[in-house]
Amino acid sequence: MPFKRISMFLALPLLALGGCQTVESLGDHTAALVGLGDDSPNAYASSSVSEVQHTGIAVADEPLAARAGAAVLGSGGSAADAAAAMFFAMTATYPVAAGLGGGGICLVRDASGQVTEFDFLTRAPARQGAYAVPGAVRGFADMQKQFGQLPWQRVVAPGEALAATGFPISEALSVRLASAQNIVRLDAGLAAEFLDESGQPRATGSEARNLALSQTLGQIRLSGADGFYKGMIAAKLEAYSNAQGGAVTLDELAAVKTQSGAARARGVGEFTVYMPGGRTGAGVFTASLLDNLSRQRGNVAGAASQALAAFGVANLPQDLGSTGFAAVDAGGQAASCAVTLNGPFGSGRTAGDTGVQLAASPAGGHGLASAFLAPLIVAGGNGLALAAAGAGGPKGAAAALNAVLDVAGGRPLGRRGDLRGTGNAPFDTVNVISCDGETCVALSDPGAHGAGAVAETASN
After folding, report:
1. Cα 54-59-61 angle, rounded to 5 deg
2. pLDDT for 240-249, tens place per residue?
3. Using CA atoms, how far apart are residues 218 and 213, in angstroms rounded to an integer?
4. How far is the C-alpha of 374 from the C-alpha of 390, rounded, in Å?
5. What is the pTM of this model?
6. Cα separation, 97 vs 323, whole angstroms
7. Using the 8-state DSSP alphabet, how is residue 377 labeled?
8. What is the distance between the alpha carbons of residues 198 and 77, in angstroms, rounded to a whole number?
9. Which helix (H) or strand (E) covers residue 171, if one does?
10. How far apart are CA 335 and CA 80, in angstroms?
11. Cβ 42 vs Cβ 181: under 8 Å
């Protein structure tokens, strides 16, 4: 069973880890940090409550990632640290929707109340092709550098260890594996990791691992984003892409930058809603969707359909390969992120021996995925009210905005069932952290299999 070993390394600080640290000891130590030690429970709570100013809280579509984020918060990390840790954890535990080859959008609210947007979406290479130029690693590195409290190594290491030592396939991943199994069968790396001897998806609870991905994450841990966009890893990505007609170049990888600036702010009742700005498709779609929902409160599906029709979109794939997650720390900083691979497992191709799932080019059939990423932050007179993430499709974005309107309308969100479902979970999801000035509660999508997790600190 994974994570059932007792290691002398459990007492060592993670900052002592170097490039020569053994895979086993790295995995054992990080297992404890993400709450997967010998006394790990077999079930995950779908909602959790945190006392503000004493602890932090995280929520995600994939439970192991939520617990990794909470562990980072418990170690004194900020919400931005936790969001980065959840992303890197999900590159191992939820690669159907989160990957080093993808992109996304994050919002971060600092202690002063200012909200900053980070855009790091994928883009099509200049010479076209099936694969996207990835933005996620650079984006999370830039966000963490500006708003993180912990060393960079601390937020990458949990994902590295999960990939190296193995992890139990969660129900969240299992459901999406079943729907994407034909994609998995066409890639040798994915098939080896996620299919059993009979060629069927591995069962919930069975162990999976990705040693190649762990080595790539190790390079990122040691060298930062440059460990991905320059040097050996970048050369391998270019070589694989060119061999497959993907046309991603070293120059394009090295030139990847994050766009950041003040998030768009809109008043809703006594609250201010922060959302992606108009420079992205997500910002344009989210603004239109908010207008529609304001006219037909609670009608998530209807508002989504109306917004799609306004943009001339008639049909969408069921699974756009996206996910959303959020965190709030003890100091009141909040982070909300939504990421995508532009299709389940992205292009469905692993780049050689890097373990990296290459996102599909946004110029392809799943190219609208980034338009439906909806990280949101809501603040009022009592400070932070909501950190929400809608992802996966228009209904995920609509469900997140509906939660915003509920809070603005005086309807408290204290239970998982208080969220309006997307009707397309687990592919479209909404995850929310709702705060009332005294406590925060993490609410995962009522139709999916995510979890909220509270940081465990000495003050709990």
Report:
1. 165
2. 999 988 889 9
3. 8
4. 5
5. 0.90
6. 6
7. E
8. 43
9. helix 171-179
10. 6
11. no
